[in-house]
Amino acid sequence: MFSQPLTQPYKALWWIKQKLHLAKHAKALESVVDVQKCMQCSSISEFEEILYSNMYESQDKSGHYGNQSGCHGYSGNHGYWERNNPMRDVDDISTPILCINSCDDPISLSKNIELDLFHYYPNFMLVLTENGGHCSFFEWKYRNGADESLTDCHLTSWAEDTALDYLLSVAIFMEKYDNNNVTK
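User: That's the sequence. What structure does it adopt?
Assistant: C-alpha cells below.
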C-alpha cells in the first residue's frame, strides 16, 4: 500500500498504533495471524506481508509461505495490492473529483501524486499547495464587523470552503447540463 516510506515521526506513530491495535486483538487473531512475527517487523511491507498472508497464502510449521490454490485468487502480497489498488479503476470514474494536497504533507507525499491523471481526466481537479502539512489548510478570518484585531478573528479551514464551492459549481453545471439535454 505504501510504496514510499512514511516520514518521521509519522512512521513511528503508525508502528505504535498498528502494534497496539494488533496486541489488543492478539488472542482473537492468533489462529490466523502470526502476531509475534508482526510485532517484530521492521518495515511496513513486511508487516503487510505477514498480516495479510492468510488472504492468499498459508504458512507451514517452519514459517515458510506457500501458495494455497483457490484462496481469494491472489498470488502474493504484490498481487493482493495490485488487485486492491483503487488506481486500477480510475478510468471508470465519471464523478467529478476534487483533491486537495500540500507539497509538505508527510503522509500523502506530493511525489506520489500522479499529475498526469489531472491533465488527462477533465473531471479530476487538483489543488496543490506548497504548505499545509496533513489536513492543515487553515486561515485566519475576521468576524463580520470585526476591527481586524487578532481578538476578532477565528481559525477556519479554507479547504472546506473550497470543497463546498466546488460541489456547488458541480451541482450548477450538472443542473444546466441536464436541462440542456432534456428531450421535449
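The chain is about 40% helix and 15% strand.
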